[in-house]
Amino acid sequence: MTDRDTQQHGGRALPEATLERLTVYLRALEAAQLAGQRTVSSETLASAAGANPAILRKDLSLLGGSFGRRGVGYDVPGLADHIGATLGLKRQWRMAIIGAGNLGRALAGFSGFRGHGFELKAILDQSPTEVGRSVAGLRVSPASELESIVAAESVNMAVIAVPGAVAQGVCDQLVAAGIRSILNFAPVVLQAPAEVNIRQVDMSRELQILAYYAHQGVGHQDAVPPLQSE
Amino acid sequence: MTDRDTQQHGGRALPEATLERLTVYLRALEAAQLAGQRTVSSETLASAAGANPAILRKDLSLLGGSFGRRGVGYDVPGLADHIGATLGLKRQWRMAIIGAGNLGRALAGFSGFRGHGFELKAILDQSPTEVGRSVAGLRVSPASELESIVAAESVNMAVIAVPGAVAQGVCDQLVAAGIRSILNFAPVVLQAPAEVNIRQVDMSRELQILAYYAHQGVGHQDAVPPLQSE
DNA sequence: AATTGTGAATTCTTTCACAGCA
DNA sequence: TGCTGTGAAAGAATTCACAATT
Predict the structure, then answer these.
(1) Would the Cβ of A220 be found within 7 angstroms of any atom in strand C?
(2) Domains in chain B: how many in total?
(3) Both B57 and B77 in a single domain?
């Protein structure tokens, strides 16, 4: 554990499954903090996060530092801080949302990303009827100004909230403007150079997976670990 | 351990990673069909879906029937049909959206789920100012009528698009009304009995994972397989 | 006594590589 | 020839189980 080059900055990338769980632990820790808890056990935290204690401990062990105390549990603010630092939430992320329809406006109003270094700097739309409207305290800018706004506002993360038919075009423009982190809500697989990180949020995918489980009669519940017997 | 699953078509439950990819293959097949292609090779299809050919073939082999022809490729409509049948998209899924804010309205207007057996039957909201409005051709119903609407419309799938603070309450009501498939857009981990399937869509999670990769300078691209040098 | 941290065992997933078929 | 389908191999992720620590 004194071995610093194993994990930490510049160390190895964490498995994606671990990353997804870390975001959930972080949320559960924030809820625990609001509830006034100073420490949590892996069992409590895992249960709030819908995970199991063993994998939680394994995940945290990949983070490096040791934020638990044996016999006691994890220090709530300390661990939250450590996870936040690992995820890069101490930096400033300057976002733009492309598309000011219902979805873009909903995302703009979503408060969940504030307070973790995410700041919404611009919202853009192609349609003249949307341009100029006020959304979440910002004026909607014309899509044609994408490149200059990205530069002027130092935008380094973008959210695509446009119809599928134009999403790839928007993606290309974003890449050309230097953006390398994109969250895509349009129902298309975007093609982009390998250095661009794209995450996809896809309602159809989720509905189809739900349909599969319901169709098969499989009870698949992420949130509740199987009980140990014996 | 008991092997509790002997499903139809000689199928046990498919791995979740496979399910997620199947939905992408399906979309790519539909695009190919629109483009007039009759057959696709695993290489072409994988490239359109951002996967690699080997895992695509393995995924399809888990489905049972054989929809490829050696030396030729896959029959586009045949394979699309087979994947659709596997996912349960031949059945009728009757949906309700809870929450008629920007997000609920955006989801209601999202055409992507139509034509795959998904039919939006109701949209509900707590607030009297939303009730009665017309959204996607439906009138917004009061949230208090949830149980009776679910029964009257035989709703069997629900989408939660309400603020985090009330999401667990809505979830409890849905479960009480007999819903066992829930897609949750609220940023909370829902607690529900194991027989209820819940999928979570979470903007914070995705942004935080993007932040991690950008922070670490890791290029992680799901959508594009490493290019072969040619 | 309680709970973490982690090697070892297990299970799951992906990739390889090639036989089999059109 | 070209491409699928699939066992076998390799690689990851998860779970177990217990020594270490407060």
Answers:
(1) no
(2) 2
(3) yes
Q: Does an H or E element contain B37, and which?
A: none
Closest Cα in chain B, distance from residue A200 (Å): 8
Same domain, A44 and A108: no
Last-in-domain residue among B58, B87, B116: B87
The pair of structure tokens assigned to B167 is: 């999401």
Asked if B189's CB is within 8 angstroms of A28's CB, the reply is yes
Residue A69 Cβ < 7 Å to strand D: yes
**For B199, which of A48, A206, A216 is closest by C-beta distance?**
A206
Q: Are B56 and B25 in contact (CB under 8 A)?
A: yes
CATH number at residue A75: 1.10.10.10
Lowest-pLDDT range of A108-112, A190-194, B189-193 = A108-112
Looking at the DSSP assignment, which residues form a beta bridge with residue B122? B96
Contact A18, B223 (CB under 8 A): no
Q: Indicate if CB(B57) is under 7 A from strand D.
A: yes
Q: Which domain holds residue B61?
A: 16-87
Report yes or no on B11 lying in a domain. Answer: no
The percent of residues above 90 in pLDDT, for chain B, comes to 83
